[in-house]
Amino acid sequence: MTDFIQIHALTAYPPSNLNRDDLGRPKTAQIGGGCRTRISSQSLKRAWRNSNLFQEALAGHTGIRTKTFGWKVVEALTSGRALGAVLAGEDGKPVRPKVDEQTAVTWATAIAGAFGKTKKGAPDLEQLVLFSPEEITAVDDLLGVLAQKRAAPDPEMLNLLRKDSVAADIAMFGRMLASSPGYNVDAAVQVAHAVTVHDVAVESDFFTAVDDLNAGDDLMGAAHMGETEFSAGLFYLYVCIDRGLLVRNLGGDEALAGTAIRALVEAITKVPPSGKQASFASRAYATYVLAEKGPQQPRSLASAFFRSVRQDDLLQNAVTTLRATRDGIEAVYGECCAECYEMDTLAGAGTLHDLLAFVAPEHHA
């Protein structure tokens, strides 16, 4: 039986521009006849996946997403360093004979081609590929063989794609390979775009910068003027985790799946996107989290906020509205989950520790 874990989170951000559109403005969406600020699911997933919290919890169990993998292979071949060290930006000592650059480019182009279409005569991939740790190890092992034999890879050596993986991020967020669909991975985690629970006006911040060496004797005024746009608001976020699919994607490793779920949920509560953080320091923890689990068909509670929440007590009104919507759905459809847990900073109820234990109890040997 499939178990779903659903996370509903409310997070308040002060003036910020966490996720920009093509004009540099905060992304928006029209909901309920009003303008809301939006944070895309892609932005959220990247922030969580790349966070120190997630990477440290899942050390050795995350992949690397890049189009420049072939050039990293070239660097590993010409320097003699391990591919893992090159990808991590570490110096490292040579571990195999070095290869001249022209040969390295030829070999790397063939290797990169095993993962996707490359640009003509170069190892650049035309699409982003998420490489699993097993695939990186397989390529590194191949580089050692090629460097020793001083021979180009034959077709059999280029069977480098791997179905079985311990990469939690691939298992969670999926992988799509246009040229090798047999190695695609269905995402076990679905992430909605976060939207404010109330109407928002995107505002402009006019700013100036002063030249430190300008004493004002001859030149007056600013050395630079600029404008950046921002908004502020309370965001609703919905995430659905298919725990059964996650375990299957990780080859049945229940303990690793639990670690991945706990790392993801903690990141959801703590980690914002990185957009314009130096300008706004718009870091925030979730104010309220409702976690649900069970075999029932998942559903978002976004309908709670199609009518803009009253602003007289925005935080509490949003929590009250979310709970009322949940209760209304259950009154009509019956129980929508087997168990639930709330963490509410307004009431000082619940703890992050207990939330993580609820979504994924730790396995002890």
Give your account of this protein's structure.
The protein has helices at residues 41-50, 52-57, 69-79, 83-87, 101-113, 133-149, 168-173, 243-249, 254-270, 277-280, 314-333, 352-359; strands spanning 4-16, 28-31, 34-39, 64-66, 129-131, 189-191, 194-196, 203-209, 224-242, 288-294, 339-344. The chain is an alpha+beta fold. The protein has 2 domains: 4-58 and 187-210 and 224-359, no CATH class; 64-166, no CATH class. Strands 1, 2, 3, 6, 7, 8, 9, 10 and 11 form a 9-stranded antiparallel β-sheet that branches. The protein has a two-stranded antiparallel sheet with strand order 4-5. Helix 3 runs antiparallel to helix 5 and helix 9 (254-270) runs antiparallel to helix 12 (352-359). The protein is globular. The two termini are 24 Å apart. 37% of the residues are buried.
Summarize the structure.
The chain is built from 12 helices and 11 strands. Strand 2 and strand 3 form a beta hairpin.
Q: How would you summarize the topology of this molecule?
A:
Layout: E1 4-16, E2 28-31, E3 34-39, H1 41-50, H2 52-57, E4 64-66, H3 69-79, H4 83-87, H5 101-113, E5 129-131, H6 133-149, H7 168-173, E6 189-191, E7 194-196, E8 203-209, E9 224-242, H8 243-249, H9 254-270, H10 277-280, E10 288-294, H11 314-333, E11 339-344, H12 352-359
Antiparallel strand pairs: 1-9, 1-10, 2-3, 3-7, 4-5, 6-9, 7-9, 8-9, 10-11
